Amino acid sequence: MPLPNENNARDRYLTDIEDTAFRVYLAEHHPERLPEIDIALHTGMRRGEQFGCEWSWVDLDKCILTVPRSKHGEKRYVYLNDAAVAAFRALWQFSQGSGKVFAHLYRAGDTKGAREWFGNALAKLKITNFRWHDLQHTFASRLVMKGIDIRTVPGIDGP
Fold first, then answer.
1. Can you give the pTM of this predicted structure?
2. Whole-angstrom Cα distance, residue 105 to residue 72?
3. What stretches of the chain adopt beta strand conformation (E)?
4. What are the φ/ψ torsions at residue 4 (nearest 5 degrees)?
5. What is the full per-residue pLDDT of the chain (159 aa) written as tens digits?
6. Fewer CB under 10 Å: which end of the chain, C or N?
């Protein structure tokens, strides 16, 4: 049975106060997860793209990531800002640029991936009505608040 499409009409994003509290919590309890959040918040990548990401997609010298097959079946390019590059560089040490970017964090057979630690962190911080997908909304909202036209922000809406 296919999964239902995400409801992209939501406008929930991480406030600055929530973002700060979330980062402080992660730094104290799960510092190894900070690059995951930075990549999500600074690239706008979909969860499946992010956790399926292979090092062969990432070009840190050119600051670009190539998703070979996006949600719409086409190749797409994700431009990497300084924060995203720093997050990828932090992850590089675990794999030396081989295989999946996040493989070192999700080896155990019983892991639920990002859903488990992410949900637990949100619950501890009492951040409600927020999902991983809303990190994309946060990325897009921050760009729009800086004056970027929403139509130029790729891959944030649509079925």
1. 0.80
2. 28
3. 58-59, 64-67, 76-79
4. -70, 155
5. 555 555 556 678 899 999 999 999 999 998 989 999 999 999 989 888 998 999 999 999 999 999 998 888 889 899 999 999 999 999 998 888 888 998 877 665 545 556 678 999 999 999 999 998 899 888 888 887 888 777 766 544 433
6. N
